[in-house]
Design brief:
The complex is a heterodimer of chains A (about 650) and B (about 180). Chain A is α+β, with helices and mostly antiparallel strands and about 650 residues long. Chain A contains 21 helices and ten strands. Chain B is elongated and about 80 Å long. The termini of chain B are far apart. The model of chain B has no long low-confidence stretch (mean pLDDT about 85). Classes of the chains: A alpha+beta (about 650), B alpha/beta (about 180). Chains A and B meet through helix 11, helix 12 and helix 13 of A and helix 1 of B.
């Protein structure tokens, strides 16, 4: 019964979405307040219905109801409770249900907090949201129903893919989807603005918190994904330029560009069509990500649901959503008038450079990801595009932007004297030069990209710090500096923290990419291997039993110059249901780097094992940097200018008044 | 001119969508083998434990045959096995088995003892000698080899009623006419 009720709730949600996609839109067109007012109740009913359906599927999973096909294929009675729950979205059908749940949550948030939006804009935004929802409900009900039954009822399930049975990955998809789907808000606002034919500062101010929220979630999702790859795949790597990783990275790049261009629309009333385009792009790339993962167009380790029929449906969906919005863009965007003018060297110019580089970056990643498909489609054979392509194109593209990023915040709007700006960053230049000199003095023959990476990271960090110090007049009027520091707007705190976070993350990438040390060998108990100054002594391995897997656990005593540092316990697990092994790397994080050990298969007759040992310098900085970026973004969202439902500020009040 | 610029994103998207449409028709599991239409490199495999004859490239000469790579460790081979038994019972084509990458010499014979042995001849290939000669990616994989010992077709994954009736069996019959 539970499964059928969930199915029924999903059908009802489709019906409600059909109403929401039409009635408020017509109301907004005709100026009918009653029809427009349909948007709120229908948003609320949608979220209740989808949440109910999601609850039904979760209940079936948690109670291991093996009469439901989705539970049979993705769960097992012996799985720990955490993974019984995460198995709900660890598969194609369930993840779509999560997708629409998040979509309806965002929709109802607009209905709830959108009190200060003009009614026509709100009606249109929610109408567009409902159109997207209709597409996804149909997709689920017609091709991917999570509530299908299975007769005869099997004794037990087939279990979730063991690689996915991991705390990091349990929460990775929800954050990723919060990010992907979050960009649907910016998209809906963009489409509504194109229909209304107006984009102004107030519009940008409404869009920005949603975009920031989506960007925050996506950043967490991407960081969690790379963290998982780092400790679960057991090769010491953290980013493989896999199509599915790229699928999450492209919307991130487009979303980052959107965040910055929306500032220009808000402050300077220009770059409007471009901002609208980025809003469409960010969501389109999110949809594309879903398509790439779900359709089987590209094969990768992640493609756990390849099915051409679904692919055709998603392709139709893409054509309607992306194609339709780009047609609307081509028709309406040329009419958007900008008033602000600016010189190339100005804050606007800097933000535009950021935009161009970010979108070029997204295009490069898109090209690399789709190239194998393009070639195959014209009969050119099967190829795969790997890290060499991405690293050699993407990194050089980003370097000039990172250099410019240090200048961005010290540039004035409209026009700036470049020499004056550079003078203000004098201290940052000096600090960067010192770091570079110190690095060359210690390791002149060090890895080129590692040195470049650390240098650029230092520059971004120092320039951001110097700009903050300048802003609070730390050097010219130090007495009031603290009070000025505390009176900084939260949005500018957000910028400072996010830029510093990126600098920290880049230092981590450069360190791990440039100075990683690895050794692979067979070790017998008692044997020691020296790696980057640390002695890894293999103490042997023992067998143990987990809830739904068997364990071979190795023990390494790590010491530095005879002083014990830590004892590491890497595991190799074997999941009997799927006959799949997984590796659980043992990692000890130190300030300057991670000690990383993996145990492999037994080798030889003396209790020897294949072991992989790594020293990954600075790698934890990467995730710490991502955390700082997220923290900055959250502070920025809490800025009162964007606070949803807050009394209208003096600037926005005028705009809203003019609009209503 | 300015209008055209606003149309550019749409044009780019339509091109990508066109490729997607073509891409959907391609089978991602269709791994082409460079060895197709090449002579099988000669190999001679020892018998598996308890059998007295092995399997070598000489056995392929003179008739169209089906060569199947399997292993007791391979889960999908279990799913394929009933179909292979059916092919063997009807004596449709000589079916040769290659017991691939078996760590325990007893595992393969025991697997066959429990479930039935569909193979005309079986070779033991713990060190992937024949697997390299055929260019095998994973198990199960099957090859149709013609009268002259040339690999004519590679089938990746499980043989089932569907692909047997639609692809493999028609191809075997066609090759026999040559």
């Amino acid at each position: 019964m539970i499964a059928e009720t969930g199915h029924f709730a999903l059908v009802l949600a489709l019906m409600v979405a059909l109403v929401q996609a039409t009635v408020p839109m017509i109301g907004a067109h005709r100026g009918n307040a009653l029809m427009m007012a349909m948007d709120k109740p229908s948003s609320y009913s949608q979220v209740l219905l989808v949440a109910f359906a999601f609850g039904c599927l979760t209940y079936s999973h948690v109670t291991s109801d093996f009469s439901v096909l989705n539970v049979v294929q993705n769960s097992h009675s012996k799985m720990p409770m955490l993974y019984k729950v995460s198995a709900v979205w660890g598969n194609h059908e369930g993840s779509l249900l999560l997708w629409v749940l998040i979509l309806s949550l965002f929709g109802s948030a607009v209905a709830l907090f959108g009190g200060n939006l003009p009614p026509t804009l709100r009606a249109r935004v929610l109408g567009v949201q409902a159109m997207i929802a209709v597409g996804f409900y149909l997709f689920m009900l017609l091709t991917s129903n999570p509530f299908l039954r299975q007769f005869p009822i099997p004794l037990d399930g087939k279990e979730m893919n063991p690689l996915l049975q991991d705390p990091g990955l349990a929460f990775h998809p929800p954050f990723l989807y919060l990010g992907y789907v979050g960009f649907s808000m910016a998209f809906s606002f963009a489409i509504a603005a194109l229909i209304e034919g107006r984009v102004d500062a107030a519009w940008a101010r409404w869009v920005r918190p949603w975009t920031l929220a989506a960007w925050t979630f996506l950043t967490i999702g991407v960081a969690l994904g790379s963290w998982w790859a780092y400790y679960e795949l057991g090769w010491g790597g953290w980013w493989f330029w896999d199509p599915v990783e790229n699928a999450s990275f492209m919307p991130w790049l487009a979303g980052t560009a959107l965040l910055h261009s929306a500032i220009v629309v808000e402050k300077r009333d220009t770059m409007k069509a471009w901002t609208i385009f980025l809003a469409i792009l960010a969501f389109s790339l999110s949809l594309l990500g879903t398509f790439l993962v779900r359709s089987g167009v590209l094969t990768s380790v992640h493609a756990f649901a390849t099915d051409p029929e679904r692919g055709v449906f998603i392709l139709m969906l893409l054509l309607i959503v992306i194609g339709g919005s780009l047609v609307l863009f081509a028709i309406r965007a040329p009419a958007l008038k900008s008033t602000g003018v600016f010189k190339p060297i100005s804050r606007e110019g800097g933000l535009l450079l950021n935009n161009l580089v970010m979108s070029t970056g997204a295009a490069v990643v898109l090209l690399g990801t789709l190239y194998p498909l393009f070639l195959d489609a014209v009969g050119g054979g099967k190829v795969s595009v790997g890290p060499p392509f991405f690293n050699s194109v993407f990194i050089p593209l980003m370097l000039p932007m990172l250099f410019a990023m240090g200048f961005g915040p010290v540039l004035a709007w409209k026009r700036t004297d470049m020499v004056e700006a550079a003078k203000r960053l004098k201290l940052a230049f000096i600090a960067t030069g010192l770091v570079l000199a110190a690095m060359l003095a210690i390791a002149f023959d060090g890895p080129f990209m590692g040195i470049v990476g650390i240098t650029i990271a230092t520059w971004v960090f120092m320039a951001t710090a110097v700009e903050l110090a300048e802003r609070i007049k730390l050097f010219s009027a130090p007495r009031q500096a603290l009070s000025r520091l505390l009176r900084q707007q939260r949005a500018s705190w957000g910028m400072t923290l996010a830029h510093m976070g990126l600098a920290i993350a880049i230092a981590g990438m450069a360190g791990a990419g440039g100075w990683k040390v690895e050794k692979i060998q067979t070790m017998v108990p008692g044997q020691s291997v020296n790696l980057a100054g640390y002695d890894f002594k293999f103490m042997g391995a023992r067998r143990a039993q987990g809830p739904n897997y068997t364990i071979v656990e190795g023990t390494f005593q790590v010491s530095e110059d005879g002083n014990p540092v830590v004892t590491l316990h890497p595991e190799k697990r074997n999941y009997p249901v799927r006959q799949m092994p997984t590796t659980e790397a043992a990692i000890h994080t130190l300030f300057m780097g991670d000690l990383y050990a993996v145990i492999g298969d037994p080798e030889g007759s003396e209790g020897g094992f294949v072991t992989r040992l790594y020293y990954n310098p600075l790698i934890a900085w990467m995730w710490f940097g991502a955390f700082v970026m997220v923290f900055g973004s959250v502070i920025s969202i809490s800025d009162r200018r964007y606070r949803v439902g807050a009394p209208k500020g003096h600037a926005s009040g005028k705009q809203v008044g003019a609009k209503a | 001119m300015k209008r055209l610029m606003y149309l550019a994103p749409l044009a780019v998207f339509l091109v990508i969508a066109g490729y997607f449409a073509v891409g959907l028709k391609l089978n991602p599991r269709d791994l082409p083998s460079v060895l197709i239409d090449q002579k099988v490199e000669s190999f001679a495999l020892k018998p598996i434990k308890g059998y007295d004859r092995g399997f070598s490239s000489e056995d392929l000469k003179g008739q169209v045959s089906l060569v199947n790579f399997w292993g007791s460790w391979c889960v999908a081979c279990l799913a394929e096995h009933p179909m292979l038994m059916k092919i063997a019972e009807q004596k449709l084509v000589p079916l040769y088995g290659i017991d691939w990458r078996e760590k325990d010499p007893d595992a393969g014979p025991q697997w066959l003892k429990r479930r039935g042995d569909p193979y005309t001849l079986i070779g033991d290939d713990p060190e992937s000698k024949a697997a390299i000669a055929f260019g095998v990616y994973g198990a199960p994989e099957s090859f149709i080899v013609d009268q002259r010992g040339t690999i004519r077709y590679k089938h990746t994954g499980v043989i089932d009623e569907g692909n047997w009736a639609s692809t493999l069996w028609p191809l075997i019959q066609e090759l026999r006419k040559q």
